[in-house]
Amino acid sequence: QYQQAHQLAPFIDRYERELARALFFQTQSFASSQSFEERQKFQARFTQAIGHAIGATRLGPERSENWANLGDLYQLMVNFTTDAPEAALQAYREARDRDPLNPAYLEQIGKLHILIADRMQPVLGSKDTEARLRAQERIQYELQHAEQAFTNALQLKSDYSPAQYHLGILYERQDRLSQAVQTLETVLQAH
Question: Alpha-carbon distance 105 to 89, whole Å?
Fold first, then answer.
């Protein structure tokens, strides 16, 4: 359906955006397959999905939802490719720049900073002292940026539960337990 709409009106960003989502959801059946042929189908569909998502950002660069859609697709790929977290961060930053009052984009940015920090954890067990130190610095950097993103989201909307929840979890990870409890209790009271 979106493919047909896209063919009839190839210059409408909404059709590009929705076609990207539809193609990505089609890839889910191939994602866990061990067969070479199925993995090739997955890669081809995902490449098409990203192409259409990028196309939507070119057709409607002023629309935050086009950038958020691109960020969503990259975020769904974090387990399959190493550049996905950085690409998703950039897309969500673009969305935030276009809709600076939407706390959801900041929450996604914060979650991605945590993901990047998590990816550095295995390096902490390295025998290479310099690599461990770089990893510790990077983890600290990412967690500080995650906290800032969640805090900024809450400045926009003080009762934004997803940001409150993730901030509470971040505090718990940093052994800031009284702040974690206070933040998570706020989430529980709101629900």
Answer: 9
CB contact set of 150 (below 8 Å; sequence gap of 6+): 106, 107, 110, 163, 164, 166, 167, 170
- Enter the tokens of residue 92: 């969500």
Residue found under tokens 């409408």: 12
Dmax (CA) for the chain in angstroms is: 58
Rounded-to-integer distance, Cα 25 and Cα 91, Å:
19
DSSP 79: T
Coil, helix or strand at residue 172: helix
Mind listing the pLDDT tens digit of every residue in the chain (191 residues)?
556 655 665 667 888 888 888 888 777 766 666 788 877 888 888 889 999 999 999 999 999 999 999 999 999 888 778 899 999 999 999 999 999 999 999 999 999 999 999 999 999 999 999 999 999 999 999 999 999 999 999 999 999 999 999 999 999 999 999 999 999 998 888 77
Neighbour tally for 121: CB within 10 Å: 10
| Cβ(152)–Cβ(106) below 8 Å | yes
What is the DSSP annotation of 15-74?
HHHHHHHHHHHHHHHHHT---HHHHHHHHHHHHHHHHHHHHHHHH-TT-HHHHHHHHHHH
